[in-house]
Amino acid sequence: MIRCEIRGENIEVTDAIRSHIEEKISKLERYFTNAPNTHAHVNIKTYNNSQGKVEVTIPMKNLTLRAEEKHDDLYAAVDLIVGKLERQIRKYKTKINRKLKEKNPEQEFFAKLEMDANHEFRGEEDDENTNENYIVRSKKFQLKPMDSEEAVLQMNMLGHDFFVFNDRETEGTSIVYKRKDGKYGLIETN
């Protein structure tokens, strides 16, 4: 959930202004699978010529959304700012999509399998010496249908190293993950 911290300079933040801002900013939550618990810092200023300026900053782990708008009508300024923030999110998603298209998924998949196989072989000896393989936390969540590009965007927006989702194309469960080299991998199940 995105919570709004609203501050006014030379203006009193009325309940009507507050509810309009909160309603518009909450529309950004649709771009996130699990809406991040973050704060939108909203600053409203008015000037002698009755023109107002609205600034919105939403800091997240891997992305900071920021927009400002000057307008005679503060309500219109908030509407324009939400449009700017939506374009920033789409631009970020396009950037992620472009990076995904540049990779060779089959080569990365086999490299990951080989790395996992080598790790499991070495791990068998370690397991005999230590008894540290136990689950310390368990989570349940519902998988949402999406494509791999959207899953990478969601993973980055949440700040995770992997993301499990229902693949819209194959209708199977898939996993996207961030590799050590900064690129992304996709694991598909049958």
Automatic annotation (TrEMBL):
Major localization class: cytoplasm
Annotated localization: Cytoplasm
One of the protein's GO biological processes: negative regulation of translational elongation
Gene Ontology CC: one annotated term: cytosolic small ribosomal subunit
Domain Sigma 54 modulation/S30EA ribosomal protein C-terminal: 132-186
Keyword Cytoplasm carried by entry: yes
Keywords linked to the UniProt accession: Cytoplasm, Translation regulation
GO MF annotation terms: ribosomal small subunit binding
PANTHER family recorded: 30S RIBOSOMAL PROTEIN
Function: Required for dimerization of active 70S ribosomes into 100S ribosomes in stationary phase; 100S ribosomes are translationally inactive and sometimes present during exponential growth.
Family to which the UniProt record says this protein belongs: Belongs to the HPF/YfiA ribosome-associated protein family. Long HPF subfamily.
Quaternary data: Interacts with 100S ribosomes.
The protein's name in its UniProt record: Ribosome hibernation promoting factor
Species this chain originates from: Salinicoccus halodurans
Lineage per the UniProt record: Bacteria, Bacillati, Bacillota, Bacilli, Bacillales
